[in-house]
Amino acid sequence: DQTNRVQQTEQRPRCYGGFAKVFYGELRLDSGVVNVAIKRVNPPLPDDEKTAKIIIKELKIWSRLNHQNVLQLRGYTLDCYGDFPALISEWMTNGTVRNYLEKNPEVDFFDMVKGIADGLEYLHKEEVVHADLKSENVLISISGTPLLTDFGISRTLIVTHTVTTLGQFLGSVYWMAYELLAPQEWSPQGNVDTNFVNTLKQTKPAVPSKETDVWAFGMVVYELLAKTHPFRDHTAVQAIVAIILGRLPFPPPDIQSRRGIDKSLWDLCTRCWNRGPSARPVMRDVVMEINGRNFVS
Which strand (E) or helix (H) includes residue 289? Predict the structure, then answer.
């Protein structure tokens, strides 16, 4: 608990996420002052003992994580701004991985892919599901290292019934796996109409898994390959329909003229997007493949 050590220094959030606002602040330590991000979750949580136990359990899990590609949780604060504990982490001045690569074109994005894969493999080894992996949730440290952040928050909101409809996830549907969007009885050969989409948006969201993380990892790799987010020309609803119908992103138009590594990464993307969750690669094997000699260079 860092409530007595942290101070929010700005009233307006620096950025917004799907379920949180991020404020700038300072954490006073014995060694000095650290600039921090204070992440405040938007939806009001149910005020009951079960919810409190789930949150405390998740905070304990997140606080023990220690990996070079996972943004470390510095603690939390309980103050007058909200009921949910605000999460404290060091402020990353380099921003997100996409923005960093745009500003630093000399950086090889393959190194970013390796770091993201290593971080996700570590989370899965620790039985943590990220549940909202996208380039916006990969920050870059002062040394240029990719760091996964915002892991577990979306899953916690679903488990505690704070988020109750798929429509509340519209900002993240571009990265969401087929099974998170399509009800089991849906036939992808059927007609998709407005009534179906409206019903789908009101559907109770499925709980994310390691397999849905792998799908999202493939979309993040695609982002770095194509330098744009998946389904760039689609609205959120159009992206939902496309994924349900099995219409996946096209390869970058110049992929055939690119280096072998880029072609291998595109092949990896397509395997991460297998409709059958059990047919997708596991992150342990992805990391071995990326680091192995068989990965075309």
Answer: helix 283-291
